[in-house]
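Operator note (shift B, R.M.): manual run for HIT domain-containing protein requested after the automated queue skipped it. Running by hand, logging everything below so the morning shift can see what happened. Input copied straight from the record, untouched. If output looks odd, do not overwrite the archive copy; leave it for review.
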Amino acid sequence: MQEQADQSVTDDFELAGVPDSFQRLWTPYRMAYIKGGQDQVKDEASCPFCAGPQRTDEEALIVHRGETCFVILNLFPYNPGHLLICPYRHVPNYTDITVEETAEMAALAQHSMRVLRKVSNPSGFNLGMNQGEAGGAGIAAHLHQHVVPRWSGDGNFFPIIAQTKAIPQTLSEVRDAIAAAWNQ
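Run finished. Output pasted below as returned.
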């Protein structure tokens, strides 16, 4: 009986992978999001980042419109205040944007961090761009930079175990607070 239990544990361990120096959290449910995003956006007509600027700021959750780029809330935020900086042009790669777009994107990332510090006092930030399908971009067809505010202890097992993320504010409340602080 004990041998069967030991064999079962060994079999389960082999399914999880061979241990090494990394701690890994296996989240296969995320593949639906990763694959789903790729199939939905093929061109400018199906792109939410191209559609956003055609709507009101409140409807699209835009917090700032610049000359070449705009700042919008992520509809599926990792944390409250998760912003995306997008060029107006429908381009997929960082290497496709102009010098002016690059400069404005960088300036907007810095300003976004300053505003988020005022509005919600995060302990840190994650900044990044996922390039291409293989790079993990949910919408690979339109370049966007993430600005994610982080707080000590904001990461827990709730999203992994329950497939749920607790966000304490509505998107419209967050958008209003960030937009109000943007020009202060």
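Quick read of the result: The first strand starts at residue 62 and ends at 65. Residues 8-16 have pLDDT under 50 and may be disordered.
Leaving this for review. - R.M.
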